[in-house]
Amino acid sequence: MQSSLIGKVQKAKQYAQEPERVRFDSLKVQFRGENGDHEVTYESGKWDCTCHFFAGWAICCHTMAMERLLGVMVPEQQAYPEGLQQAEVAVAAGA
Ligand SMILES: [Zn+2]
After folding, report:
1. Confidence class of residue 1 from pLDDT cuts 50, 70 and 90?
2. Phi and psi dihedrals of 24, rounded to 5?
3. What is the whole-number distance in angstroms between the Cα of residue 85 and the centre of ligand 1?
4. How far apart are CA 21 and CA 15, in angstroms?
């Protein structure tokens, strides 16, 4: 076994533990929601989703979930409208 290849695998394992090294510039995913599939995209710091809720609020459970999944790899956090801020507090309190 080539030691240089072992080094590559070791570095991959190390990098996979350090998500702050990665920053998404754009992405497109199919999100399987409870009521159907939605296409979620992220481009130049802006989220988009094909679901009905996003059309009215410019944010939705799918984009919020993606933000939580990707964490520091998406440095720009979405602004939560006031109603969703209150909902977040309620969920944190155990709702
Ligand atoms: Zn959505």
Report:
1. confident
2. -75, 130
3. 17
4. 7
Q: Can you give the length of the chain in residues?
A: 95
Q: Ligand 1 centroid to 1 CA: how many Å?
A: 47
Helices (H), 1-95: 3-16, 52-57, 61-70, 82-92
- Ligand 1 geometric centre to CA of 40 (Å): 7
Q: Is residue 40 part of a domain?
A: yes
Tally of domains in the chain: 1
Q: Specify the pTM.
A: 0.87
Asked if the structure places residue 36 within a domain, the reply is yes
Around 68, how many Cα atoms within 13 Å sit in the side-chain half-sphere?
7
Q: What is the mean pLDDT of the chain?
A: 94
Give tens-digit pLDDT for 30-47: 999 998 999 999 998 999
Which range marks the domain in which residue 45 is found?
23-92
C-alpha distances (whole Å) from 11 to each of 1, 17, 22 are 16, 10, 14
